[in-house]
Design goal:
De-COase2_N, about 30% helix, diaminopimelate decarboxylase activity, single chain, 21 strands, Lyase, Ornithine Decarboxylase, Chain A, domain 1, alpha/beta
Amino acid sequence: MQSIESSYDLVKPFNIKDKQLYIGNISVKELIEKYDTPIFCISGNRFEDNIKEYEESFRQEGYKYFIIAYAIKAHTNLTLLKFAKNRGTGFDVSYKNELYAALNTGISPDKIFFNGNAKKRVALVEAIEKGVMINVDNLSEIDEIIDIQKRLGKKARISVRVNPEINVDTDPAVATAVKGSKFGLNFKTAEKAYKLAISNNMDVKGIHMHLGSQITNMSVFKEGVTKFVEFAKYLEKELRLEFELLNFGGGLGISYAKNRLEEEKVVENLKEIYKNENIHSNLYCPITKREYVKNIVDSVSILNHDVKIVIEPGRSIVGDAGILVGRVLNIKDSLIALDIGANLVSANIISSYNNIIVANKAGEIPDGNPVKFVGNLCYAGDFVSPFEWKMPELNKGDIVSLMDAGAYHWFFASRGNSVEFPATVMVYKGKDYLIRRRERYDNIFGDDLEIDL
């Protein structure tokens, strides 16, 4: 197995000065001295720039009618949601608490898109009352909505989530538009859902799909988008309707590896580590936001009428805007023990990788002795990274940063050993803001009922 070395090919505003990792003009060392470790650090500037890049892509394609609906599941934080809303985004939500958090920002409900394959009735009621767009996932949900409409005396605003059933070249855990997926309806069943919605006086606004996550192969988007738009055109003709919007979901990947060579080296290591698993080469994403948007804009021309385009990016907005920072607690031979563990890393996605930088020794020459980073959990599989790394000489107290860690680490986080979840800090325009407190004992056990039996 080849050892991995830190990559210093960083996206702005992450940079290195005097062997220190910086977010803009604030060093990671300064942040942990102020807020301790472990900690998530989010660059508000990078988050904002990623939104602007999507907006500019639509404008460069001459398209005015669009909504960029930030996928809340990628990184959920109330300050971050208000930050996104204040920059014009909508929201993609998938659970009742995400719905409530989105509504809490004061956003117009018609910019919220409610996804999910198993929505609870209480959330559907809230969505219909407020006028949120419901992306219907199954026929049972149609029946539920019919009953709620009758009780409320109010129409539901709906799209139907369709599954184009293509080969989605990404990790199977995040491929959603494949045959047998729990998400969406095949075209035949989707047509039936639309007929039921129309006959039951629902406010049919559009059509929805989502291909998957961390997609780095443009042919996947081309095939999925083409099938989706052609089906939309078919439905408009057969059912005599005109969709106001087409929701293409999200899925655009980010570059965890910064070039093909780095990706190939990481993938070879993954194949060695996970010998019996199907490892996907989707750690480097050559697709630009402009190329992604252009493919969508070009596709809708076959409809011959104006239509609002909705996209639901998450990872490609927040993924490279965040880092996870910990400290070296002790060193045992080649094992470097940190105060962050596998509970904060997307370890159930086998084809996963985060570049690691020693933030207070950035750019220093590796000492030649491969090391492995382990966590602080009582669990033998608690590896922060499965790879062997060539690093500068490490000492207790050194600062270790997992790069491109803004997306989905919270989604998969667990509270093994009753470990507190980290604080989160946003750095924006040269200032740092605590946007999530570090958990305390009462947060962890506050809902327990202590009975002396």
